[in-house]
Amino acid sequence: MSTVGALLVRDGHVLLGRRSAHKSFAHMWDIFGGHVELGEAPWAALCRELHEEIGVTDLQGDYIATLKTDGPDGPVSLRVYALFAWSGLPEIRDDEHSEIRWFDRNGIDQITNLVSDSYRPIIASLLTPPE
Fold first, then answer.
1. Contact yes or no for 100/20 (Cβ under 8 A)
2. pLDDT at 48 over 70
3. CB neighbour burial string for 91-125, b if at least 16 within 10 angstroms, e if fewer
4. What average pLDDT does range 93-110 have in this prediction?
5. What pLDDT sits at residue 131?
6. CATH 3.90.79.10 matches 2-126
7. Are 50 and 32 in contact (CB under 8 A)?
């Protein structure tokens, strides 16, 4: 299965969403994104998913990594992007997440319920080190 995800980065902070209770990985912190539809380009899927989930558009950023994991339905390939500019104020727009929050590097280190520990080095590389 092909999926896309984004780390929105601003002023030394990254935006994560807490997964809703009725979703897989319930109550865990995750990046935003979702499935790539048949025939859809990864960037187009990312733009669609972020608009649906948190209402942001006009995304500007870069592909940074592909993570391979085993998901509930089999192997998953997650293309991760770092976004540094977008239009709109991120807010919950659907039922995927129950909360969204900006985290600095120290805050990321304190999260014990992150969907994947493979996110940590990627996030750390995007944020300024703690003072």
1. no
2. yes
3. ebeeebbeebeebebeebeebeebbbeebeebbee
4. 95
5. 54
6. yes
7. yes
Q: What global pTM score does this model have?
A: 0.92
| Residues ≥6 apart with Cβ < 8 Å to 120 | 108, 109, 114
Q: How far apart are CA 115 and CA 60, in angstroms?
A: 24
Q: Nearest to residue 91, comparing CAs of 102, 107, 81?
A: 102
The torsion of the CA quartet 14, 33, 111, 21, rounded to 10 degrees, works out to 140
What's the token pair of residue 123? 């996030």
Domain boundaries, the chain: 2-126
Is residue 130 scored above 60 in pLDDT? no
Q: Which of 24-28, 32-36, 119-123, 127-131 has the lowest mean pLDDT?
A: 127-131
- Binned at pLDDT 50, 70 and 90, residue 129 comes out as low
